Amino acid sequence: MSDEAVKYLLDDSEMPTHWYNVVADLPTPPPPPLHPGTHQPVGPDDLSGLFPPELIAQEVTAERFVEIPRAVREVYRLWRPSPLFRARRLEAKLATPARIYYKYEGVSPAGSHKTNTSVPQAYYNSINGITRLTTETGAGQWGTALAFACSLFGMHCDVWQVGASFDSKPARRTLMETFGATVFRSPTRDTESGRAFPEGHPGSLGIAISEAVEVAAQQDDVKYALGSVLNHVLLHQTVIGEEALLQLAKAGESGADLVIGCAGGGSNLAGLTFPFVREKLAGKQNPRLIAVEPAACPTLTRGEYRYDFGDTAGLTPLMKMYTLGHDFVPSAIHAGGLRYHGMAPLVSHLVHEGHIAAVALHQNECFAAAIEFARTEGIVPAPESSHAIALARQEALACAESGEDKVIVVGLSGHGMLELGAYESYLAGGLADEALSEEALTAALAGVPQL
Amino acid sequence: MSDEAVKYLLDDSEMPTHWYNVVADLPTPPPPPLHPGTHQPVGPDDLSGLFPPELIAQEVTAERFVEIPRAVREVYRLWRPSPLFRARRLEAKLATPARIYYKYEGVSPAGSHKTNTSVPQAYYNSINGITRLTTETGAGQWGTALAFACSLFGMHCDVWQVGASFDSKPARRTLMETFGATVFRSPTRDTESGRAFPEGHPGSLGIAISEAVEVAAQQDDVKYALGSVLNHVLLHQTVIGEEALLQLAKAGESGADLVIGCAGGGSNLAGLTFPFVREKLAGKQNPRLIAVEPAACPTLTRGEYRYDFGDTAGLTPLMKMYTLGHDFVPSAIHAGGLRYHGMAPLVSHLVHEGHIAAVALHQNECFAAAIEFARTEGIVPAPESSHAIALARQEALACAESGEDKVIVVGLSGHGMLELGAYESYLAGGLADEALSEEALTAALAGVPQL
Q1: Considering CB atoms only, which of B115, B152, B171 is closest to A420?
Q2: H helices then E strands: how many in chain A?
Q3: B168 within domain boundaries
Q4: Model pTM?
Q5: Is B180 part of the contact surface with chain A (CB cutoff 8 Å)?
Q6: Domain limits at B380?
Q7: ipTM of the complex
Q8: Number of domains, chain B
Q9: Modified residue N6-(pyridoxal phosphate)lysine is at which positions (chains A, B) (predicted)?
Q10: Are the Cβ atoms of B375 and A151 closer than 8 angstroms?
Q11: What DSSP string runs through A126-145?
């Protein structure tokens, strides 16, 4: 162990002041979302029932950089910059010449990257007189993040939590309530979308989205907030990659060879990688960018690139994306945040165009890597983040074979302090760990609209 | 909200290189610990079965400063410096002219200050050929911290967890196991100390200490590690206060008016306040230093300053300290880390000599303050830490009345991510919240040896 630094931060004066919009630099624009009824491109008016004007503008902007409002930057400073760590102990354990850096978003109030977008979303809604936000949550990270953000801006927050998660993770519900939110077990009996399912149904992210959207659409001073998938959400997350670029430079690196993030809805991956896409397109560095997803929900690696709904009930616009079918219910893997049938259209577009690669891993390998990481670096990763760590481990071991001293940047999107039940199951003898079957995949894709 | 900084860190070059030994500056030396059999002052030989020579030397050193070994500083850098935050949002909420700073130890691998001492303890044992450390844990913070430290230095870690905590907090056990430890429910059937209690007994910290000490004393390559109370533990924690002094200066403050920490065994309080004691004795600043304890376990405010055992079975040396009696079992308040019958002899001495004041608070007030803190500052405090926050809140509101712009420094010793069950109970309608009765106190003190 050398006496060199392991943690890189940024001074207040160095903090990013703008989010980065990758669309401005793409040779081909991403296909537009379509209205679920008319199948025509969605315009700003179609979204005004759900989102405030600033977020709608960000959803379609062609500007390269969007200024982060001062009120948002002031909140960001509670946990930003998130630290970039050099994983020297893990490197030593793996006996690799690779230099592994991890960008750690678990320092945020919600314990994950989600507050990077919940705070601006709450802010823009608050300055438009909105008094209440509705949303869904699966693993609970997003619901926690929005609950916190609403508490700062004096708004109420209603969260529809996927039933299975609500039942098995009381601590997540308590955390949302501690931040002031009201939490419902989805599906509820209170919405049309919820009543379509039998009482006690375990729910899904798609169903919970339908419920939250349905409620928000009914009242003028209530809006909806989404934690991933949409362009404006991905935009807000780019603060991760912007910081990482500055921190890598502080660490004396001229660039990254590999940038690895887990991908569920795609916002964590986008936030980390999009600024690297810019550097790559500008010829400044040439990293391989890799999305890691679970073998049980292999949207990018085995889904189809088609127009599909973001939710189960078909209330959202149709989006061109990699999808497993909007009524697909993935098996109950522990990385709840990666159990989504689709993928952000912008991430899908970049994968389709070859800018970002994708790999699927089994959860047992991910937990094994996560435990090794905890015992060397001291951070217990969220099950989602463990997917990125497991791939970084593979790549670092390949470097040990080849002798290459690659610079590997890993997105550590959150901590696992509220997911220790998953670790308990893993330590007790491994987890069910099946890949999606061909039959289930074919059946799930049969429900995707023919456009 | 102004545009000023909210978070203060330190550059690598500014990091403390030494721990501070307050004994060197005290006008009166603290009374020595006594051998439990002979009642004579304990010498180094009496401790050599339990601790390695470096820690025994630190236990009795008269040096003002003790260098932090390079190997320890390298591990510290995973989470140190811990941030000093200015609580601007809380100040605004309380409409106080006071400036509230909190020193946040929850960024550590264990989620609390405990790793500040677990790492050097594991290090010194490892360089002495020790292969296994035993310890006890109540709330689980200390067991987690030692499990992590042992994993770094290639030692095994055996943790006796207080039965009630073991039963109600499986996540804590899993976290210790994730870091590689073996966890026993105390009292066990495997030790003489444990067999003195009936099967299924809820246990206590005192019993768990007896079990861990008993096992360590039987084998040469096994030693014991204690998470609080002893001089060397308090010494290691002074890195907190040393950093806080530097960070306050960076924030432009010439000193603190109030320094507030919760106190269970006393190491968190000591770590934060002892460097301020030095500044005070040197006439450089004049802060009031305050220990906050639970009304259900009011060691400093209602205990007696006498020689007593540190554990239930009477295996430890007799220490002059504030005590409620070594067989006192406090009621099941949620701040498990504050449920200790005694108090560090050095803290006791400083309280007795008037350098540090003490206040006892009820847990409902503490949880209410903690929730307000979470909703403004984004951090859910450990139930222990909430005691310091609640007193800071009282003081800040007093400043709002008086118009004084006091500088209040609060020790936020850890986060509450693994204690959300306590928040759930509080949010569901308040907690049992009784102060220790006069009868129970008299009965508990009757067991203290007459010396």
Answers
A1: B171
A2: 18, 15
A3: no
A4: 0.96
A5: yes
A6: 74-111+232-444
A7: 0.94
A8: 1
A9: 114
A10: yes
A11: HTTT--EEEEEESSSHHHHH
